[in-house]
Amino acid sequence: MPTIAIVGAGPGLGLSIAKIFGARGFDVALISRTKDKLDALVADLAEAQITAEAFPADAGDPAQLTDALQAAIARFGRIDVLEFSPLAGMSMTTPKEVTVDILRPQIDSLLYGAVAAVQAVLPGMLEAKSGTLLFTTGGGAIDPYPMLATINIAQAGQRNFAINLHNTLGDEGIYAANVAINLMIAAEAPEGVPHRAPDEIALDYWNLHAIRDQAEHFIGA
Predict the structure, then answer these.
(1) Can you give the pTM of this predicted structure?
(2) What's the CATH superfamily of 3-219?
(3) Is the pLDDT confidence value at 93 over 90?
């Protein structure tokens, strides 16, 4: 069975991605900080007849994240698809307020975490000459929002990494792409607020994995 690892798994988009891939024959490795939350997701997926297992780890700690992904590889054989979308908190910071200390948690989770995750799963993909790497950012990674300066900086680096992987790994059978989501992820939202249901967005991830052509997919109003 192929396996998808979801770093930053939660009850919203992460669960929807797990269900979309799981319904198409994938086992699921779920990674985030909180074991109780992961166990609830595993139970939810079990009800849908999807095999899933929890691997708690903080994406901001490269050693923890690497250990979790190595444990997932030992459990399932290898990771065929990596989806990377952890949160490092919603830091409201303007560009002039950015300091190294304020920026560091975002860089640790979103950029260093992405690098650590790729380094953990890439050897198996290279050996198999097959694999998919999907990264999730906000729209601010492309066109930054003044109040989200630290998140935008870290996600812009992650986006750059994703597109560079896309440009260099295709000949080795590995597809990489960035997904930039510039609206509220929700089935419902206040009037006038652009939104899209997580189950619908998750289908875009499946289509990217299946079609394997574009370096970036933008989801906006």
Answers:
(1) 0.96
(2) NAD(P)-binding Rossmann-like Domain (3.40.50.720)
(3) yes
